[in-house]
Amino acid sequence: MTLRLGVIGTGAIGRDHIRRCTHALSGATVVAVSDLDPDAALAALRVHNPEGRAFASGEELIASPEVDAVLVTSWGGTHARYVQAAIAAGKFVFCEKPLATTAADCRAIVDAEIAHGTRLVQVGFMRPYDDGYRALRQVVRSGKIGTPLMVHCAHRNQSVPEMYGTEMAVVDTLVHELDVLRWLLDDDYVSAQVIFPRATRHTHAKLRDPQIVLLETRKGVRIDVEIFVNCRYGYDIQCAVVGEEGIASLPEPAAVAVRHEARLSTEILVDWKERFIAAYDVELQDFVDSCRRGQLRGPSAWDGFAASVASDACVRAQNEGGVVPIAMPDRPSFYDGDGTGRAA
Ligand code: NAP
Question: Which has the closest alpha carbon to 235: 303, 183, 157, 155?
Fold first, then answer.
């Protein structure tokens, strides 16, 4: 049976996911949309499905018997209420990051899902679906480089718009590292600190750029993440795990090496959509397949909550300076053994 999807929020990633579900994936069709601007939403859907319809509100879309599962791709501040409505309706829901904008709202979603009794929520953390991160995790878990001691990361964007402020470097950007590093190391964070190096002249008044985030995990691993979102040269994601016996690094995206005029060069990507395009496909195909099977296994509401707890601490560290402790509660057994190695 084809899974009938409803998409709430038809902005940049909502439209990209409608295209993806229609043309790149199998087993699903987008039948409904909802957005603050229902006409624009319907126009975005009709490009792919001439029979699709728009609902006046996300809640009506969720309640519709024509919709089997929901994608929440609206602005972050609206996620919690739509995810809660989907849980109340007993429908599977894929929610783009962040799951909610506060840890308390994420925790309320976790509690509602546990009360429901089965997993209904998948959070849109796509990096665990990226081939490079998967290969890196395999090497780390194989023991080849010994016990991980340190991780050096960088998250660099070419530039960001004026509305992107200092806090967004954590909430919108670092949040991907906060999730993927927990998964990579099978660990949780115990403290965070943020250091502001000399600022680039390419930043603007509301943004301190670059930033270095220092994290410590329960197992004692030390992590540094450079966030540099006006780096000028491209979109560049780096991750190197230093172990007792060696170092394992995230592979660079495949690129043609050009030898020309006494130079050897490879192109650097500039668009995050291109860098993780395959990961988004695999992530959403997994969601579709899981819904059809009746059992989710991707990044969970607990993972969304954990990232939010760490992200709150990093924002405090930005504002207060010094080392901020992170008190992460133990994961409820409800989230054990989800089949991807995600939980265990
Ligand atoms: P966007 O282009 O601003 O799109 C958001 C859309 O949601 C807009 O059309 C907006 O309408 C609409 N909207 C706002 N409030 C709504 C409501 N109450 N009900 C229904 N629709 C509403 O933003 P985006 O870049 O697509 O990002 C959307 C979400 O995806 C964000 O949470 C973002 O963090 C996440 N995201 C994740 C990734 C990733 O790598 N996983 C990448 C990009 C984005 P208006 O324009 O009228 O406000």
Answer: 157
Ligand 1 mutation target, pool 74, 82, 308, most atoms within 8 A of CB: 74
Q: Please check whether residue 45 is in contact with residue 33, taking contact to mean a CB–CB distance below 8 angstroms.
A: yes
> Separation of 38 CA from ligand 1 center, angstroms?
14
Helix axes 277-293, 12-19, angle to 10 degrees: 70
Mean pLDDT on 166-172: 96
- Which domains are delineated in the chain? 3-127+279-299 (3.40.50.720), 130-269+304-335 (3.30.360.10)
Can you give the pLDDT at residue 1?
A: 86
pLDDT digits (tens, 9 = 90+) for 57-83: 999 999 999 999 999 999 999 999 999
State whether the beta carbon of 100 lies less than 6 angstroms from ligand 1: no
Nearest CA to ligand 1 atom 43: 13
